[in-house]
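Researcher: Let's run the pair from yesterday's discussion. Sequence first, then tokens, for each.
Model: Starting with the first of the pair.
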Amino acid sequence: MRQPSLTARRVAAVSVSLVLAAGAAACGPADNDAKSSGGDSTPHKGGTLTVLNANPQQDFDPARLYTSGGGNVPSLVFRTLTTRNREDGAAGAKVVPDLATDTGRPSKDATVWTYTLKKGLKYEDGTAITSADIKYGIERSFAPELSGGAPYLRDWLVGAADYQGPYKDKKGLAAIGTPDERTLVFHLNKPEGEFPYLATQTQFTPVPKAKDTGTKYEEHPVSSGPYKVVTNQNDGEHLVLERNTYWSASTDAERKAYPDRIDVKSGLDSSVINQRLSASQGADAAAVTTDTNLGPAELAKVTGDKELASRVGTGHFGYTNYIAFNPRVKPFDDVKVRQAISYAIDRSSVVNAAGGSALAESATTFLPNQKSFGYEPYDLFPAGATGNAAKAKELLKEAGHPNGLTVTLTHSNAKDFETSPEIATAVQDALKKAGITVKLQGLEENDYSDTVHSVKTEPGFFLAHWGADWPSGGPFLAPIFDGRQIVKDGANFNTGLLDDKSVNDEIDAINKLTDLDAAAKRWGALDKKIGEQALTVPLFHPVYKRLYGKDIKNVVISDWTGVLDISQVAVK
């Protein structure tokens, strides 16, 4: 899931993507049984689930989607080798088998991963799903005309760096072996203990070669999940899904598939979505949203209404909003200046600017405060709730700025309560108390993204944020702090331009671990080690508050996505 301009495709965020998206443990709806709403709490099959979204589900092709854990709507149609565990809170941050019998069997050095498919897997037309179909699905994701998915496979698979997909290269990828119809063997360039997490991405969806229609495949992708696409209008603006009668719950322990029909309507204004969910009239009584949060004003109204408050799902997604420094730009080349700003920050005012404590939690670590990331609590430059101006002034004096200094903070003009003017102003006010005059430079969203993601134009001091492609420290720390991931002529996310051999070596060492709990502890320790260099100032982690209709039952919100999982929802 990463910067929001990208996260719309990535996270779920997530897509995640993801996501998306979304640390304390996630929880169910506020003041409500996390499994239901209304009278009878037992979920039943049948009915139509309506999804009201702001953003269309564009590029509905498994090759082109960038999700976290397979996404929300996409995972109803696309099954993958592994998937996220569909449970509330921290338990939902685990990776579990999906099409495969397990989460993968690694070689001793984690450079070879072997998967066996479950028996009885079928597409919507009743034909069998084979290992060759998954291999082909991955291969077509390399085609330039189907770009957009997660980039890891190009880096991780042996010989994949220059592969152009099966339309141009009929030989395919030798790094993916299919010794029989139920077995896949992946050969990697280097040890990757987190390969099971990557296998949740939609690129691992089976695609029958005979049914591949290239760029038109998104109009009717062949379903391997509990629902099939019967309508896809205006590139995902209106999606209608109905049951895939060949899907079997006996092969799928994760998706409940309660509704008979799912009607996804997008392109709606966020205020309209929340108004409709609040009123909960007609079909909207059985409606949810997968991309629209309650804003501060809306949340205040909802909080004062007991019935509405009982229909708010609360969740956390692995996401950090922070200040980024470019140490190649003066005065941020001096660690004491960076430390002074770290001490001066008033996190209470920043949290208020982000919508208040109900929508944001203050952060002193770069990693989100969830176990799966390896969260280790630390506060290297304790500013308290409102900033430590005295300590900041002391450090500035040591750095040769006894009378303070003037700096420019770059931010986005987007009204996202993350890198927007509200947050920038809160930072400006806090630093003023420490003798630091902050001039604000607001850029339109596209200009902001282009400017801060280019090594050539990256400012010295700017607002940034990062979301998880999956709930682990790896995709959180490596893109931001691995020196080998500095991109000089493209989109660069290593904002501090850190190239520290000891950090790079530790990333490699952790990647060799297939014990994900052990790896998590190492990620947490690495986070603290990097934090000592004061290359970022963590500000806050967002909290997701989303309304759902009064007839919605079986609400599940995991720490993987931080939002309601529609594969679990019932409407009867």
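Model: Moving on to the second of the pair.
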Amino acid sequence: MPRNTSINSVLIIGSGPIVIGQACEFDYSGSQAALSLKEEGISVSIINSNPATIMTDNVVADHVYLLPLTCESIEQILQENQIDAVLPTMGGQTALNLCIEASNRGLWEKYNVKVIGVDVAAIEKTENREEFRQLMVDIGVGVATSKIANSFLEGKEAAQIIGFPLVIRPSYTLAGTGGGFVHKKEEFDAALNRGLHASPTHEVLVEQAVLGWKEFELELLRDTNDNVIIICTIENFDPMGIHTGDSITVAPGMTLSDKCYQDMRNQAIKMMRSIGTFAGGCNVQFSVNPENEEIIAIEINPRVSRSSALASKATGYPIAKIAAKLAIGYNLDELQNQITKTTSAYFEPTLDYVIVKVPRFNFDKFKGANKELGLQMKAVGEVMSIGRTFIEALQKAAQSLETGRAGLGADGRQSRNLEEIMHSLEHPSADRLFHIKDAFELGVPLESIRKATLIDKWFLVQIQELVYLENELRRYQLNNIPRDFFMTLKQKGYSDYQIAWLLSNVTEDEVYARRKELGINRVYKMVDTCAAEFPAHTPYYYSTFEEENESIASDRKKIIVLGSGPNRIGQGIEFDYSCVHGLLAAKECGYEAIMVNCNPETVSTDFNMADKLYFEPVFWEHVREIIELEKPEGVIVQLGGQTALKMAERLEALGVKIIGTSFENMDLAEDRGRFSDLLKDLDIPYPKYGVATSAEEALVVAKEVGYPVLVRPSYVLGGQGMSIVINDEDLEKAVVNLLKNLPGNHILIDHFLDRAEEAESDSISDGEDVHIIGMMEHIEPAGIHSGDSSAVLPPFSLSEAVQQKMEEYSIKLAKALNVRGLLNIQFAIKDENVFVIEANPRASRTVPFIAKAYDVPYINIATKVMLGANKLKDFTIVRKLKGYAIKEPVFSFSKFPEVDKQLGPEMKSTGEAIRFIKDLNDPHFRELYSQKSMFLNAQ
């Protein structure tokens, strides 16, 4: 059936600010869906309050509403536009909940708007735990024994009937919020209360716990003819008991028998067909008993999910794009396979490789947090890797995490504490994967590890084999490793760094040179969705060690953009936004734009975004070989946050051109001590400071600059390790901790300007002219990390003289640092005196906010300036903001109720929202400002 011609305008509901459990995967889905609908000539409107997303760009939608996700905002949009249909399946649980609320209020009926992509009644069936359970019973799909409870008394009765251990699952919550396992009767009352309060309907499911069972996810698509296909089967490395967002996952499934797989497929299709007549995407989760392969259904999500983005990147099948077309009436056999361009979308992808997803945690930001993993998701991001085998992909994922690991162990960071390791195996946390390898190295038997972790034996055997290989390698020296064995090590995912560490007396560069002598080179394979059965036309690659290389470098002039790796606190979706605009600008300037990144949630890793995508770790060895193959004109590191910036020194040493500001000048800004010396030379005020490399030196510096002092390391992002201290004892502790976690780092000791205001500027420089793109005043005072502070654009209470000083210092610094591209500067203001705290010659988290507030494509402009294609005078910049824009941080403290929520110099927010106000009499602004006034005026 061709598309529904009565639908000419669609509203897509976004997911709002990034929180744990709902991250930038919905930016990817929303962007894909919007572009897919625009291809059909449909007018697309988007509502989302997140300024850091691509989906809230005018390049994606016809009308963008940066409004709070409320029914009042929805009605405003429906009054201003003729909207024919709403698509709520691209914005996660937030969008679905808003869709239900709008439906209950009668908004869709009042404005004659169709809900497409999902059936509202289906949402009710899947989110209401009792309705879901009963539906599964009715259609003959197995479920765990359970009872619904709407009160404390009902919950107690359910527990008495089911017995322990059991699971509490609140209805209508995101990422397992409020849920958890209860192993003992004594723990039940508190857990039940948490679940009931977490559910907006005060309802929980008390369910039999199937601890140790395997967990699987299936991604499905269905069209209006009721055709259903399975896009991807994902197996959890971790058994039941750990939220899928916190679990290592693998595709395709590694340990499924064909009989069990076929049974699971049939049940998933039956489940999708049972929840309404909608056309679109769906995610189904199952648990499988490892003893007899009994299958029970865990849940079904009739929307695009976190796993949908992963499945899209894993298979090359653009789920959100196709789901959007199905929602407007197309059938699967009427749509084209986006990669082969010759087959239809009515096919199931075939993989001739393995993908592994590993979550990224930020427990360091939540001191005192319970790090044990369970039903409530705690990961802040994830990486995905692709390899020919599971173990190759697993090692590549470990290299992608940005946690300082060079692979799965063999890098000098192994634990040798058996008690600690065994506790970690039984009580899973972020490090359990690495501790499994550590346990094998210490000689713990495989069966003991299996009993402690309940992880399938097949996975454990793969990791155990690494220990055998490492013992074999230690028999050799670099110059006599047999070529075949060297090749085996590389095929098992070992980095050159790991091999060097295992050999003890050689360097990473020496290992690299030796394998090049032996002709052991990384080759690139195409992700084609069909295991090479049909030719593919999309340049989407991963690396491995074989003979044939499928990535042929063109003779075009090229630019490589380095991505930001996994999301984490301090480095989030704003850098993906920057990378995407960098790619678009490079293409507009006539370059072949090449993307390197490993984050499956992002728009930058969409195979349609760059001219060529390498889904690879942003890890030196991988980046180096891509550069050697492609021979680009240069590499852009300014847009990928600290991940990309950390490559700059090695790129410089290799003779690779860094596009934009030079490494030398970026390093000058990053080195806090040298930067303060520059400020002194420029006669720019700055807090008194000193540099220390030990606790003893720090005490001397603190005495000179005076307490309170701000203690911070160089070369970090998101305020990592920063603290404010008021005496020698606290200073000594802070410095010792920093040097323990960041050995060899220089520690900067600044005099802290107590009760100062904070502000910042962002600017673009082309080497001659400097354009201030925005100046913001913070609501919170100095001492609160800028990422955790509300910021108002333009400043609302800073005097004209202060703003002039900020502009003067911004221009001075841009010229002194010879900035080509972006520059962010943080200021402290006290008694009308302006002090510079730091400068960052790179994309910042505030640039997307400013770009959205003023409706100016600043990253696009900055990239063209970096490339030397344009000067600032070539652009006519018209700002459209009337009134003020407020950037408001959003936190995920609900995941860590036990931690200190006090804000300080180390960033803790997971995302942000934008709010527009007409004037300073706005009630929301007055409330925020009163808090600031109270603090600044406090005695």
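Researcher: Give me one sentence on the second I can quote.
Model: Residues 145-208 form a domain with the Dna Ligase; domain 1 fold (CATH 3.30.1490.20).
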